[in-house]
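Exercise: predict the fold of this chain.
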Amino acid sequence: MKEDKLNEEDHKARSRFIRKLIQNPNISHTDSSVYVKKIPLQIVQFWDRLDSLPNDVKDCMQTWANLSQQGIERLFFDNQSAKDFILKNLGVRHLAAFNKCYHPAMQADYFRLCYILIEGGCYIDSDDVYNGGEIKSLFNDGRLKIQPLCYDIISNTMIPPNIFTKSGTDALSWIFYFNNNPLIACSGHPVVKRALIQATLLLENEETNGLQEIQSTTGPGNLSKTIFDTVAENAEMEHTLLVLSNWEDVAKCKWELSYRNDARNWRHSNCLRFKE
């Protein structure tokens, strides 16, 4: 009971911290003097089996094709090519952790941390649809660009960004956190590195604790906790972040997709062995 209470207080403290970060207009306008190097002009996407990519997901991914005219390269990975990349660049320990990701969504979560840490670039989920908004400027410096989110536990709905990003807006039932999509940063960014370390340790702990919860192990929960812990230790790390309060001007997640109705949707497979 005491442990549950401590966990609840940790989550509340994290939400309050993220709300302050989201609603602080100075953060988004502070140029980093440390992370001045540009991010590679690459958009990286993952689907565990590209040879059986659903047509509706393929349509989402294709919306990014025109960015090639701006010199932005698109890279696609599946389960095997992701394993090859991880083994070559990070070694057997991280490959073993990836292999413990029991669901494709979890594999995508873990792989994006590996790829962005090593190469830098922009990871985007395969169900995001490009709206045509300006994106190239996000590659101009090496800060970690992250999308804020807010969830209302009473109504079981997401709060629109134009509401929860306004200074002073809050509710007791709101939970503020950061998405891990998009994940945009230079190679070697310390927050990405720490998030990967934490995810790896949690996956290695699977033998004693059973299948890990996806969000908190490799997904937005892990990234949000990492940002909270990093800035709590060193407030200057705020300046290595850029909060993308207007990401929906660039892209939106498409919910009406066929795979969301079966086990390929991680919400139906959380803490369960995945059966395609």
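Check your answer against the key: The chain has eleven helices and eleven strands.
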